[in-house]
Design a protein that fits this description.
Two copies of one chain form a homodimer. Chain A has 120 residues and is mainly alpha-helical. Helices cover 59% and strands 8% of the residues of chain A. The first copy, chain A, folds into two domains: 11-76, Arc Repressor Mutant, subunit A (Orthogonal Bundle), CATH 1.10.10.10; 79-118. The structure holds a DNA duplex (30 and 30 nucleotides).
DNA sequence: ACTACTGTACTAATCACTTAGTACAATAAT
DNA sequence: ATTATTGTACTAAGTGATTAGTACAGTAGT
């Protein structure tokens, strides 16, 4: 996967979000070993340094941890993954509502527009 | 308004989005004169250079135009404003659906979650 | 033992964004 | 006429993101 990179936001942030998404959606499972920094960088089409920055930042959240010379692994704490999933969903919906309100809609109108879009 | 600035995206991009929002929501009307670059910069709490970059970029979309020494004005083309409003709304909803699908939901579930959030 | 692979660390160079500061020409207001 | 305000242009400096390149220590597989 060449990874959808947006130039107006730091690449390492987008990588973090992408990996978080892969974890909460079960693409990676609790305890799974991640590909190496170099392989992930090659897959994503970015410099290994950029990938390492993304991973070491991600590590500080506890979501992944590295074994010095054997690889990097997803946390075994399944509750942490579940909580992150909930948090990401909440943020997504909340941001959407805020953005739509900024465009002049109230909650009732937002629901209408969403239903309308789904039945496009 | 001190302007909500997010450090992980270029400030001038956020300024552009903010002004676009003010235009499509009628905070600025067609033909209105904008405050000066310096005043807008002071209000937003950014450097005048940053504000000028935002405004001159915004100008290339035709949404605003500058009269060399008398000021900067919102377009008189009300259809352009209406079209931008529609485009921004569509993009917002589409992005939301894409992000939620990436989190593993289908359209039916998205609608449910949105209704649930509104009645929180 | 040897080889390949792992995460990690470091320097250097480049680029975009931001800020500070200064300056100029044209219009508006007085 | 004079003054203030307008958009615009320019240089210089600082910061952060990215890339390129190199290197090292520990582990796994052979």
């Amino acid at each position: 996967m060449p990874l959808n990179l947006n130039l107006d936001r730091p690449i390492f942030v987008q990588i973090i979000e992408h990996i978080e998404n892969d974890i909460v959606t079960g693409k990676y499972n609790s305890g799974d070993k991640l590909p190496s920094v170099r392989d992930l960088a090659a897959e994503a089409g970015v410099n290994p340094n950029t990938m390492q920055k993304a991973l070491s930042d991600l590590e500080q959240t506890g979501l992944v941890h590295s074994e010095r010379t054997s690889g990097r692994f997803i946390t075994e704490d399944e509750n942490m993954i579940k909580d992150l999933r909930t948090a990401l969903i909440d943020m997504e919906i909340e941001d959407f509502f805020n953005n739509m309100k900024r465009l002049g809609f109230d909650e009732e109108q937002i629901i209408q527009l969403v239903e309308q879009f789904a039945n496009k």
